[in-house]
Give the backbone structure.
Amino acid sequence: MDFRPNFYLPSQAKEGLAAKTSQNLQEIAAFERAITPDLAKTMTDITRTYPSLDKRLVVYGALSGLQADDDAMLQLAQTQEKAMEKKQRAKVNTQVNPLKRGTQLSFLAMDSAFQNISRNFKSSIVAAQETGTSLTGAVVGNTLAGLVPGEQLTENIRKATLGKEFNDKYEETKEAYGENEFRRALGEVQAGRPLNLGVGLLPNSLPLEETDVYVKQIKLGKTPTEAYEAAAEVYGRPITEEFERDEYENTYLTKYGERIPISPGRVVAAQFSREGDIKYALASTIIDGAFRLGADPINLLLGYGGAAKTAGRKIVSKAEVAQYVDDAAFMTRALKTFSPTKKRCRS
């Protein structure tokens, strides 16, 4: 959801939106309390009987009182199957002309520098919480150590300033995140496998679960993993989708007990507000926009702070960042309350 239109809302509108957000959170909590062992078993039975059934239909069906062997459940699955078959009659192709492929790879290459910086930050946050290190000290210290040429010298400085335990956890987390999108794409090309970056100018991989190969393998009784691998051999691995999944592998546990994705804006905003609050939305969007604005080379070409290659990312202009950092009192509070919390991050 894009919160930028809320920047200029009157106070009454903001209060109404906040109340609606609180109501949504209460509904989610009520739903979680409603998941009884019997309901969970029903969902499991439906999933095993109809492996390709949309997971939302599994939940809605179980909440409606349907069982896996009910005729209504069978009709629901058949209706979805017909809709999927109609969608898949169109030829699915992940191969594009050389000009478009070059454009896609160019976007990935330009974004790779930011992705590396972002993962360094995330790995620092994970290591800081796991080892009880100050978040601010970890981020600043690791950044300064990274300015020294040579990986071995950087690692030695990190060990000396932040400790061996921190360094080991940092390296472990960074390794677990894997390669950036550009290196993953190059690996697929070098291995002679199909390259799945979608068919548009901006790289956006085709989800393998939507392909006819995947669906046919499921019908043949294959497991989702086996069907996924079979589809990957035909269409190529969904690089952007897998990268996005790995990006959110770790979460940050706030002092309010909420787990949130790790990013500079979210971590800072979580020091003084809850996820879903107006102040959280504003602060996280602005800080992440400023972080991307300064760290992402793609902005030199496109002129704005939310890299255009990924759909759904916030676009925050330099003017917006400057205005709200200068004018919003809560931004000052956000930065001042950036205090460390211990052992609040897990994979």
In short: The chain has three domains: 32-79, 98-249, 250-346.
